[in-house]
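Quick question: what would this complex look like in 3D?
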Amino acid sequence: MTPEDLSSYGIGDGISEVIATTQSSSGKPNAAPVGIINRGELLIRLYKSRTLSNVLETMKIAANICADAMIFAITALGDIDDEKFTHFRGFPVLKDADAWILFRCHMRERAANFFVFNLEPIAMHANRKRVMAVNRGFNAVIEAAILATRAKNTEKSVKMMEHYKRIVDKCGGRREKDAMNFVISAFRRICDER
Amino acid sequence: MTPEDLSSYGIGDGISEVIATTQSSSGKPNAAPVGIINRGELLIRLYKSRTLSNVLETMKIAANICADAMIFAITALGDIDDEKFTHFRGFPVLKDADAWILFRCHMRERAANFFVFNLEPIAMHANRKRVMAVNRGFNAVIEAAILATRAKNTEKSVKMMEHYKRIVDKCGGRREKDAMNFVISAFRRICDER
């Protein structure tokens, strides 16, 4: 697969933030945001998570290209409903994804707290192509969701979360505002639990 | 024009960051990033700038939907080459835009330091549709360019610029890294001049 082919399915140069769908050996699906690293070769670095345990069981992962702030927020900090999945040859992908690429994973590195896999594309599909302007609110939700998953109840984290909320309040649409509320609730809950 | 029509040309709910192309009454083109506000009605708020003086002269503006970090960086902090423009019925738009919408502007509010205009779509064109994953490096360039245009040589601004640079170094492709270098050079120059 050439860089142009990958790019036509949404994976450009650098790290692409996508929703990874995986399943356990018993077929239970999971969705979570991951970064697909594209620097000459395709890689993924996975820390301890359901995504990692599923990949170790099946050696497959699908990268779903999504343009919905809410799906990033929910999959980063909780679980999506089973009805959001559809299946391609028995493997879960997201119904609402703009596109997905199914990869076979090849173990490349096993470190103390993460694994690195090489990714080999084995199938792909585009549901829709769009023209889409930059929405700073959407982008702020992505950053806020990442911050929340690493939640530390420090002054710096709280200030950054407020910074992202101001951008969403100013620039976001309805979907970004709902997603930001979800992220902030999760952030507070996680901070309280720690 | 319905919200669905606007959305199919890239303008969603909330504020869309686009490259505005305008021209003076003598026909000199200009390009600069602006936010198109879409909250039931379409608005633009313009502060003192060449974009504003051109709009006051011609009462027209084109919103160019672009997915290139470098075009945001250059137009925010400098000038693009004339060869980047093409013309639609005598009005400048960007050759490389994914899409553009040409608007007639109607004065709505004149405040001490800004003007607000209602936007009436009069023509539109899509050059290409894409599947595009989120690239945090791209998003960080947009935030860094906005920060640079408001450059203050404060500890907070410098720290935020370093934060954006770390994201671009980690997640950006070649284009985002070049754009971030451009933004940082401009930021330092503006800070030095003040």
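Answer marked as accepted. Chain A is about 40% helix and 35% strand.
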